[in-house]
């Protein structure tokens, strides 16, 4: 009867080995919501007692690789940026909005199943030729024209400033 280190109090050494510490719970959550309620909890006695042989073997191992990692993580490749110079802009001399031609295989059959009756089309551009009501049409012609003007003015200012 009494106290033995790592065990606890009582006749059969079944009592608490560490005194209870009172800690205010965070927030208004339920019990156990913010982690373990007893941070000083002692595990079973077999887990607490560590042999001297295991302590010495860990010291003599000498490996420099961290033991907590399962495997080395591969780094994601960095994103590469392509910067255009003034000469590149001068060489291109056209914008994306002027080149609206599609480049694809010509022998494809495309079946449009969006309506009641299926339509067989020759290319993807003919999908856009669907007849819409006047309420559904959203014309972006002015917007694309304005974007073209902005891009052209920027290119001209780059050309004149050089």
Describe the structure.
InterPro entries: G_patch_dom, TFP11/STIP/Ntr1. One of its GO terms (cellular component) is U2-type post-mRNA release spliceosomal complex. GO terms for molecular function: nucleic acid binding. This is G-patch domain-containing protein. The structure is a single chain. Helices cover about 25% and strands about 5% of the residues. With about 160 residues, it is mainly alpha-helical. Among the domains are: about 40 residues, no CATH class; about 70 residues, no CATH class. The chain has four helices and two strands. About 5% of the residues have low confidence. A two-stranded antiparallel ribbon has the order 1-2. It is elongated, with a radius of gyration of 37 Å. A hairpin with a 6-residue loop joins strand 1 and strand 2.
Index terms:
single chain; 162 residues; mainly alpha; 4 helices; 4% strand
Which helices and strands appear, and what pairs or packs with what?
Elements: H1 45-48, H2 52-61, H3 86-92, E1 110-112, E2 119-121, H4 141-161
Antiparallel strand pairs: 1-2
Secondary-structure element order, N to C: HHHEEH
Distance between the termini: 95 Å
**How many strand units?**
2
Q: Helices and strands: which structural class?
A: mainly alpha
What does the largest sheet look like?
2 strands, antiparallel
Radius of gyration: 37 Å
- Overall pLDDT: 71
Q: Strand-residue fraction? A: under 5%
Shape call: elongated
What is the helix content? 25-40%
Main sheet strand line-up? 1-2
Residue ranges: pLDDT <50 for 5 or more in a row? Answer: 43-48
Total helical segments? 4
